[in-house]
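The following record pairs a protein chain with its ligand, uridine-5'-diphosphate.
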Amino acid sequence: MIIPVFNEGKVIRRNLGEILNELAESGIKFNFMIVDDGSSDNTWDELKAAAEGLKNINLLRFSRNFGKEAAILAGIEHITAERYLIMDSDLQHPPRCVRAMLTLMESGHENIIDGIKITRGKESGIHRLYAKTFYRLYKAATGINLDNSSDFKLFDRHVAEALCGMREAYPFFRGLAGWAGFTRAPYYFTVDERLEGGSRFTPIKLMRLAFGALLSFSAKPLYLIFYAGVLMLVLAAALLIGTRGMALEISVLFTDSAILISLGVIGFYLARIYEEVKKRPRYIVSERIEK
Ligand code: UDP
Ligand code: MG
């Protein structure tokens, strides 16, 4: 069971207690791998206190905030199990659903159970708008529908091994889990309310994640540039013929901006290649408590 945690000092102990209780009540045996994603509050101390005396809680601490995606993958890489469950620490992924997810996995002999949100829970307007725009763009670019998908996932060790083999610098967990294939079934759940504070994702952080996901899962924007270029050539020719050269200045301005935009798009991918060839680690572990 992997839980990424970032700046949840105030609530993490209570939330963990609740998760532990729920799971114990459902009679599920489990090991935790909790990853502190470089929190700047007292999360790490709270985690250590919560884990004291408990044999099944392992902790990993990042040297700084590397992001939820890196934290999830680090968790998978640092634990060996028959089954893996990814869960948020804020109880928005209800632990009471785990039993049913396990049953669904066993009865259907599935490799992956995808948690799908029935409603999106309480979210800010900008969050919702972001998610909607991103899913639409993502679907257009990759053909994969992530609507209402979540990181609340249960999968077996075959999937875990496949995920560990994906070495890209900016992993997007949901995309990678989809790309990996395997047999899967959806599990529909209602997102509980977050009891404390708001989302730990700032709009900038979300935008970076969305941008990264699009860039690493589709090269379509690059092809689009080419088609746009062809279209413009045809338009320019028509303009030239139609106006006998009069619209030349306008069309030059038009093409100039198009060239700059295209260069920008190519630049995004170039930057990606640059990040990939550096082969830096995706995260740095500064402390580890394993039992
Ligand atoms: N989280 C993380 N690193 C980050 C941001 C969030 O590990 O940079 C964790 C956070 O502590 C929580 C989970 O990811 O356990 C989901 O975060 P949050 O509830 O803030 O996101 P949302 O509910 O808006 O998806
Ligand atoms: Mg949340």
